[in-house]
Backbone:
């Protein structure tokens, strides 16, 4: 049962081939064996997981099971889960046992899924390598000397090493898609507002969005069916009719199931200009994937996203600005870490935050504080927001000419542990292809499309607002005729 | 542009993060690297472009002014560093 898709596991549970308790225990055993080295989980609590598994078994026996009932799912440690340690990868929340469930955790609970544990992540989701976690770096199952990507690196490593059948992630600038690419997974960042952010510890509120990290597009659709939905407690949650994201995935006998699909290829992704800092092996795999899409009936058109090149700069103003405001709540008063010694209230704040936050988080809080401070607000914050609109308009223009945009997810395959951690700017450029999607609020996916020197390469799909079902279908058709997503790292 | 050590200290104070002289020096180098990346943005002509704060142009929802939360004070204060009689304790602010 290890390594099966959610769909297959659901069928096995329904057919009484295995119980949820057995399935959960199998995964807990695997975690006990592999996690000490990979460090993908911050918290594992077998007792809590097995209690949920027993309840799921009762529900299956009663005939009231939903598609994910009884299946263990790893949860990124950014989601508050009642009575679970919820750290967000930070020392400042190192002792925080959440008194409540995030909306996403509630939804998985209502679906009868089992919480398999809380996965490691870059501190407050700020990072692209999982190296900023207070709880230690995560190793990439494909090469343990390399990073799994980030910030959802623990979730990616957990699924890629088959410790978990699927996991949740969050994506502010690429944090689902980039680790999915580096670990050979299917990852989906939905349209901003589709998944409730309530109880999901905030980094940059206008960009953060949760989504699934799975082995197949079909599984991602099953996960999104659980995760999506309006929530009045999140002021940016969108009131939309409930969708079945699996609706377009049924068998299509046609030889060219994507006949009529227009795929936009941004010249900025493929050209030889400034944006061409992409490894040759990554580009080759992406080009081969696009050729496969042509065989499936898709037509390709060249498009342009002229302002995308300014995305990273605008992002590193907007995201830190929002973060500096969001992280002001960590003051050692109501929850989390408080410095042991201080002279007065101000000293307590300053020492608590100096000791509680890691270097990358401090850097971003300082950048954010600076760009929002008197005299710099217009030049940085407002300018970044204007560029954000130009980028969003580029996509509106692009989607007049195509149905889906394709390109690389990451300019490189998994890099070495420590290789980029000394230079923040080099690390930030890891997200050069993913950031614009968050700024515009569009849905994006990464799916496995080959290997370069033995390391996975991800193909990025970008869709128009609310086109998740279509993106999943486009990914699914490719996975029906290719086997990249089925490749698993050797143990 | 280039930040100064004094600006780094000032921003750290605003953000309530204690910073040693050595940390301020290292931070200055990192921030200047990052601001070199950010500065490229200034070359973009954005005249007449409306700033975009948010991905979706939606208005804030309003709700009835009615308490909907159950009392969870005990659960929430159980995770606080220091409380007494239902109050959060901090160092004395007013003598």
Residues:
């Amino acid at each position: 049962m290890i390594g099966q898709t959610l769909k297959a596991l659901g069928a096995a549970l329904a057919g009484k081939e295995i119980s949820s308790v057995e399935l959960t225990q199998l995964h807990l055993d695997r975690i006990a064996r592999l996690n000490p080295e990979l460090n993908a989980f911050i918290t594992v609590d077998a007792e809590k997981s097995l209690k949920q598994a027993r309840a799921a078994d009762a529900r299956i026996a009663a005939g009231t099971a939903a598609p994910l009932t009884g299946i263990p799912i790893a949860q990124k440690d950014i989601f508050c889960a009642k009575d679970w340690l919820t750290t967000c990868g930070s020392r400042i929340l190192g002792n925080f046992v959440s008194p409540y469930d995030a909306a996403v955790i509630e939804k998985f609970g209502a679906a009868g899924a089992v919480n398999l544990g809380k996965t490691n992540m870059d501190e407050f989701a700020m990072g692209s390598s999982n190296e900023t976690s207070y709880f230690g770096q995560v190793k990439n199952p494909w090469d343990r000397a390399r990073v799994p990507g980030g910030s959802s690196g623990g979730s990616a490593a957990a699924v890629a090493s088959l410790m978990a059948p699927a996991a949740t992630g969050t994506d502010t600038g690429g944090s689902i898609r980039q680790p999915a690419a580096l670990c050979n997974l299917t990852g989906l960042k939905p349209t901003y507002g589709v998944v409730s952010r309530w109880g999901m510890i905030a980094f940059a509120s206008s960009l953060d969005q949760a989504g699934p990290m799975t082995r197949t597009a079909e599984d991602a659709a099953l996960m999104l069916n659980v995760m999506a939905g309006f929530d009045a407690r999140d002021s940016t949650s969108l009131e939309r009719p409930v969708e079945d994201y699996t609706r377009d995935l049924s068998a299509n006998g046609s030889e060219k199931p994507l006949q009529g699909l227009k795929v936009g290829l941004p010249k900025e992704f493929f050209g030889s200009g400034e944006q061409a800092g992409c490894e040759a092996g990554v580009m080759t795999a992406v080009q081969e994937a696009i050729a496969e899409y042509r065989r499936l009936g898709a037509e390709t058109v060249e498009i342009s996203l002229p302002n995308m090149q300014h995305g990273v700069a605008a992002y590193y103003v907007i995201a830190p600005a929002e973060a500096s405001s969001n992280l002001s709540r960590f003051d050692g008063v109501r929850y989390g870490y408080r410095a042991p010694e201080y002279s007065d209230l101000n000293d307590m704040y300053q020492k608590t935050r100096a000791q509680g936050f890691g270097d990358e988080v401090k850097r971003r809080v300082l950048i954010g504080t600076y760009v929002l401070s008197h005299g710099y607000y217009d030049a940085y914050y407002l300018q970044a927001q204007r560029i954000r609109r130009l980028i969003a308009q580029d996509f509106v223009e692009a989607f007049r000419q195509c149905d889906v945009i394709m390109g690389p997810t990451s300019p490189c395959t998994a890099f070495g542990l420590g290789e980029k951690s000394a230079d923040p700017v080099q690390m930030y450029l890891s997200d050069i292809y993913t950031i614009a999607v968050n700024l515009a609020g569009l849905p994006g996916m990464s799916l496995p499309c080959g290997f370069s020197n033995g390391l996975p390469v991800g193909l990025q799909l970008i869709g128009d607002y609310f086109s998740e079902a279509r993106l999943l279908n486009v990914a699914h058709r490719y996975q029906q005729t290719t086997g990249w997503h089925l490749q698993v790292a050797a143990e | 542009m280039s930040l100064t050590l004094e600006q780094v200290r000032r921003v750290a104070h605003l953000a309530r993060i204690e910073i040693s002289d050595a940390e301020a020096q290292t931070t200055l180098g990192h921030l200047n690297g990052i601001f070199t990346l950010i500065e490229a943005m200034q070359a973009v002509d954005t005249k007449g472009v409306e700033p975009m704060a948010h991905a979706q142009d939606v208005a804030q929802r309003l709700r009835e002014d009615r308490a909907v939360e159950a009392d969870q004070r005990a659960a929430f204060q159980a995770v606080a560093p220091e409380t007494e009689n239902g109050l959060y304790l901090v160092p004395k602010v007013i003598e």
About this structure: Chain B has a mean pLDDT of 93.
